[in-house]
Amino acid sequence: xxxxxxxLSLTDEQHxxxxxxxxxxxxxxxxxxxxxxxxxxTNKFIEGLSVLTRKLAQIEDIxxxxxxxxxRDKTYVVARSDDVDVxxxxxxxxxxxxxxxxxxxxxxxxxxxxxxxxxxNTSLFKNIKKPVVAKDIMSYPAxxxxxxxxxxxxxxxxxxxxxxxxPIVDSKNxxxxxxxxxxxxxxIKHGLSHAPxxxxxxxGLVTTGPNTTIQEIQKLMVENGIGRIPIIQKGEIIGIxxxxxxxxxxxxxxxxxxxxxxxxKKKYDFTVGQVVERMNSLFPKKIIKIFELVSIISRxxxxxxxxxxxxxxxxxxxxxxxxxxxxVEGDGxxxxxxxxxxxxxxxESHQKFKTAVLVLEDGKHIDIASARVEYYEKPAxxxxxxxxxxxxxxxxxxxxxxxxxxxxxxNSFGEILDFFGxxxxxxxxxxxxxxxxxxxxxxxxxxxxxxxxxxxxxxMDSQTEKLALSTIDLNxxxxxxxxxxxxxxxxxxxxxxxxRALKRLYEIGALKKIGINIKMDKLQLENIRSTVKMAKKKxxxxxxxxxxxxxxxxxxxxxxxxxxxxKWCTEMKIRKRDMDIISQSVDGYVQLKSVLGxxxxxxxxxxxxxxDKPEELKILISTISKIHYENIKRYFEKLSNIRVxxxxxxxxxxxxxxxxxxxxxx
Length: 666
Fold this sequence. Notes:
The protein has about 675 residues and is α+β, with helices and mostly antiparallel strands. It is built from 29 helices and 22 strands. The protein folds into 4 domains: about 1-125, Roll (Diaminopimelate Epimerase, Chain A, domain 1), CATH 3.10.310.30; about 135-250, Roll (CBS-domain), CATH 3.10.580; about 270-430, Beta Polymerase, domain 2, CATH 3.30.460.10; about 535-665.
């Protein structure tokens, strides 16, 4: 067998060295990958170790081979790989190697054979991941229908879930077949909507188990000409793998390399070690401890738990975000109660949505939710909810950059899940929806897109912006409830760069659709920017409640009548107290602007003008001119904390005669 590989292209010295490598070779297996390791020693330099390594691979019929040979005072290491999943250049990086994924080499002076082998072994375990199998990519829990279900009902289910086929089970819950949309369409065409689906199911089922590799699944699909394979365990269907699952997996694998247009941009495909390092630098030790407890409890309950959403996005961006959202594949309320026991925290649960809020002893909150799927019956409506898995839960998010998840599970702690290209869009600094109906289903996402644009310095991609404009043109934004619009506006107005966000909302026509029909010209935008800047001055010590969002609304309402303001605020479900402050500020603006247009020398006069005025109005007045600013500044610095302890009745009781002097503060 060996002799056929020892051809005349090798010298006698190379023949001898190859014999040594064959004799000294040993086979190891790491995550189901067979690997050959071999070493030898010679007292002279022999060329062609790379050729000998390749021949050793052919002789042993192994795709991955590492050879190291000491020649005089140096050790030469060569690695070859014909396995696309094993990059030998990364493996040899630990000993200073170079090359590419299929061929790599290194030259070493000061390491023993034992140390070289130890380092290569360690690097192999680090770089060779477990093979992807059915249970890793399948859609679960599997949706099934009874074989007695009508064609009409199954058609409705396929439309609702967007499936092109669904498994059929018999009365004992055993898999009985699969019915596709094509089968359903044919039955309906023949007027058989009322008939049970068992008469149209596919026979000759192809199934497989949860540990079948993705390569084997692909082969089954090609050989049998099918697009979905049920996954069976102990006789029960536990999931289904579709062509879409395969493509999603392959897309994810290729995605990690990033497309050409991201060259020169920061990339976010961090290793697990780098992610954990970031977690330790951005989260307080107390939060890290909670993550560790989540890992323990998820294992105890046989759940899977993930950190999700904005906190993961910001972690990759290097921004601290302590709004902790955890999603579990299981019952979120049960999980929250178990975690609360350990943390001695309080739980506020919402049974309908299977969500809970954990209130810690220091008052901080942690949101815990069951993984779920959302369906929208009509535009702008609140969604219907069903249990789901982590991928389905992430699929309901607003933008790709918010679909990232971080595993808190023991065997994969720190791994980033990225099913929808979120890291690529972070690198490209773009806001991108997950599907074309995203804004139609939930128009508040338009406001969130603008908010994230300004907060992160990102931009909606062209397709997303077109979808936003189309949704606005269809007048769907107007169908939102006042509460939902109010919450989005408050969130935007409490961010930085509010003037830019308003300009953007004006440009895409969203402001007009919610009743704020004013032009966002340079003067208006500068007024907002300068007023916000003024409100942040340290010399202004607010003694009454101040809200940035109220101040911006006051600016937007300055030229509106009292009737419009109250009507609009009522539609937006703004609290009466806030409505009164907005109305009072708009009503009092012109008069206060006039009386404070000159320096007020008497403290009592200045105090009387401003003591009962909202803080937002005072800030707005201070931006008009230098004189207005000086009056307001003096009030905040010297008078705002003064409280008159007596009134006119007290003076009369002291036998003072009522007069104008009663109002004077010295």
